[in-house]
Amino acid sequence: MKIAVAGTGYVGLITGVCLAEMGYDVVCSDIREDKVLLLQSGNAPIYEPGITSMLKRNLDAGRLLFTADPKIAYKDADIIFIAVGTPENPDGTANLDHVFEAAYSIGLNLDKDSIICTKSTVPVGTNERIKEIIHSVKPAHIEVHTASTPEFLREGNAIYDFFHGDRIVIGTESEYAVRTVEQLFLPLKIPIVNTDIRSAEMIKYASNAFLATKISFINEIAAICDKVGANIEEVAFGIGKDRRIGPQFLQAGIGYGGSCFPKDTKALVQIAGDVEHQFELLEAVIKVNSRQQAITVQKAKELFGSLEGLRVAVLGLAFKPDTDDIREAASLTILRGLLSKGASVIAYDPVAVPNARIIFENAIDYTTNIETAISGAELVIIATEWDHIKHQPLEKYVQLMKKPIIIDGRNCYSLREVSKHSITYYSIGRSSTQSKMAEWHHKPPILTREGRFDETFTSILPN
């Protein structure tokens, strides 16, 4: 089979490169010629572990081609994936302009019967409109089948997720499309969910909305833990052991960000509103997340009163580790809040500095070295849980900061380790236990139900 992919953004590029890695001939198209030239040279426009080596390998093998010419892109294509962006409109709805433009271009340039699969995240009913557009311009003798094949790729783990995903969703009314797309992905040995096209569109939104709900839920529990004297990590560990709940997405922090959760939750609220249903639960999830992203600056104001002239180091710019994506990142809320209060800010990130510089230009200082960031700082705010940050020796904060004060928005350090150093330390859902850490540290580990000693449980021992 010959495969074409419309769009070389995050989803399109991962899809195209990974399909080529499976041995298929793949052509990826993009309307931006500068991006096409970059990809033709073997360089990826995104940061994703493993993508560059896989890209170059498949270019060299002749299985992968990049072009800005739709005639070349869709020539002899058996399956075409639409993987263009669906940015958020001001009212929270998904902007489908790129999707419909891609559908129009595909229809004009088809030269054989094809299956058009939409990987872009689109509202329910969009694939029906895509089919209408293609049929309105395609040659009369060509047969077109449409399907919704939503993606479930985590940034930073996208290549692994492509080859080891939990499921592949194929939504279509065409039996031929089902059989053909199943055959395409069969070598991956991933469970396939066959459904109607509207249900497939909803599965993507519902999945992201549910995960976002788990994040906001655990952050609400963390807020209560701070007030009642519980430890959110132990609470999350305890409830995560319930197989009905699971431990994933139960890490308390300063909220979700990125290209999916913020946009998709708002879009689903709008989809519900369009059919006169108020999605109150998801509205609350969005509200909690907005509040959560702002709590570190609020804490800084409580500690210092005025932030005017305060030297603050913000560690982490990307919305999560192993990506350079800063879209809707908590760091953006933090940086804007600090700047509005007159703080002097230096930001650290190993890969996302160029993207932050586009937004903030010279309003802040930038570095890819943690020690440079914290040297002379009066306050450190941790916004992303990069391994570089989690493994930073705590004594360095003592040595390099004017006075070691850390607001940890990602709970990167254990309270026991913090207790060994003269650091004023605030984290999420654990602050009420900090005064007892030094005492707990001297208590012996206890025997767990599994019959092993585990120091992570020592903090629940009675005094």
Account of the protein in words:
The structure is a single chain. With 463 residues, this protein is of the alpha/beta class. The chain has 2 domains: 2-195, 3-Layer(aba) Sandwich (Rossmann fold); 211-441, Rossmann fold (3-Layer(aba) Sandwich), CATH 3.40.50. It has 20 helices and 16 strands. The protein has helices at 10-21, 33-40, 51-60, 70-74, 97-109, 126-137, 158-164, 175-185, 197-228, 232-240, 261-274, 280-293, 295-304, 330-340, 353-360, 370-374, 387-390, 394-400, 415-418, 437-441, and strands at residues 2-6, 25-29, 64-67, 79-82, 114-118, 144-148, 168-171, 192-195, 311-315, 344-348, 365-367, 379-382, 405-408, 424-426, 446-447, 453-454. It has a 6-stranded parallel sheet, with helices on both faces. Helix 14 links the parallel strand 9 and strand 10 (344-348). Mean pLDDT is 93; it is low at 432-463.
